[in-house]
Amino acid sequence: MRANPRPRKSRISPPLLGRNFSAFEALIDNALMPLSLRELILSCAQGASADGTRLRPVLQNAADQGQSLIDAALDSGLVDEDIFFAALAQRCGLELTTQVEPLEGLHNRFAPKLALRHRLYPLALSAKEATLATYNPFDLLGRQALGQELGKRIHWKLATRHQLLQWLHDGYGVGAENFDELLEGREAQADDELRQETTVLDEADEEATVMNFVNQIFRGGLKERATDIHVEPLERDLRIRYRIDGKLIEVPVPPNMRLLQQSLISRLKIMAHLDIAERRLPQDGRINLELDGEPIDVRVATIPSVNGESVALRLLTRKKFDMAALGLDADTEAKFRRLIAAPNGIILITGPTGSGKSTTLYTLLKELNTKERRIVTIEDPVENKLDGIIQIAVKPEIELTFAAGLRSILRGDPNVIMVGEMRDQETVEIAIRGALTGHLVLSTLHTNDAVGGISRLLDMGIEPFMVSSSVRAFQAQRLVRTLCPHCKEEAAVQPAQWQALNCDPIPGRFYRPVGCRHCRGTGFSGRLAIMEICLMTPALSERVNARATAAELKAQALADGMVPMRRYGLLKAAEGITTIDEVLTVTAANEG
Ligand SMILES: [Zn+2]
Fold it and tell me: Cα separation of 409 and 393, whole Å?
């Protein structure tokens, strides 16, 4: 965030000290104060600059430029923020507020323009009085203007800069401080502009602001571990939402954000190398971004809507795809390792869209990715690029389908093949041929549970013996949300609950979600795959060949040691990682 206050427009009236006079204001009005502020800052220098050698020139420079000493000192990182504000509070005789959450809705009764311009936040408001938090009590001109505009008696409290900026962000929206000035005076022309949908990128000022805003949206999304960012024009507003742990969360945006909607969307389209003039047809593109040293691929899709184009951004951070990150139990990990150690056969990962299949698939590929193995994939689209692996994207427009791609891959001497999805009989038949001729094939299927994969292949018209002789395992998975470690609370499971679950009590420590500032009050943070693995044992092969019913196949798989997904999830709940409710919700479809 930019920290230095901008030069203000000169609408400042004669001093209002008569009305809002206080001992504190007299103190800061003292001409000596800037000097003593500098001493105060230097006394809070930390680390290598403890004697002030590095800090002194920073402060001098800020003073020469007419910038805020407090912002300069905090931006330099040479001052401990908490120590400084404690000292400042004492010096000014102001209370340092320890309030963590501002009162709900208070900011709605306080003009964003005032809060953002003067960097303050309302802590209490009544008809005649206002209690406001500031981190810079030396902004005398600002407070005079404020006193006049507000027409209330003002009580001041001090807040740390970090805290104050957080409140402004939560109350008035991401990047709000950038927009404040830009949007001033645009209200009147706004509607015409929106109707004409003109691209307003010509003002350098505006472009810089919008770029800054775009970066803040991405940075915020990454910080919150968002998988997607949606920029959606509504009739009278612009909405920005993050998808975090599978759920959409609305991001606070500055008021009047819609006035910059066209610039924002054009900016995103330019970054994705899309045609910005084309607004009636959907477009797809990609942004390669580096933010704070981390490379991120962003898949961009624009969708024209009646209110204007909406943009969906999928954030593909370069994940490490570490086996440990899957959080597998020892038995499941051992099964996976045995499966991928085989030189041939098919391993199928199943589950609906959004069940984390790709992550599991990529993790297995990463494990297989050694110098001795040639690995080729055909995907729709390539979601994550992996070093040392040849990845091909399907392109139906040039007849590069899964089947066609797979056929040519097989001619290219691979050891391991990954096929994004088995959608049709032809693809499955080529994959089976590949598996039977010495290749290890990994792929995905849409089914409800692991055993369901067998029926799915048979329904596609594959001969039972082809399935039983080529597939080594069907795995199925779902994602459950994991409990926020900062706020979860132990909660015993009552015998009646186990009875209702039709399950013997599982020993362990169970927790319930609570909600805190680390998890946006949801009680959950992150997700974990729960899964089941159905191995093609000799006994199961016989059943498949005999065209046994789904129930018979499942009974056989269980007899051969398959741990059902729900059981797997309940064991994770017993470790305090997730909740029983989460497990029941995501496994409801397959335990009917
Ligand atoms: Zn929490």
Answer: 12
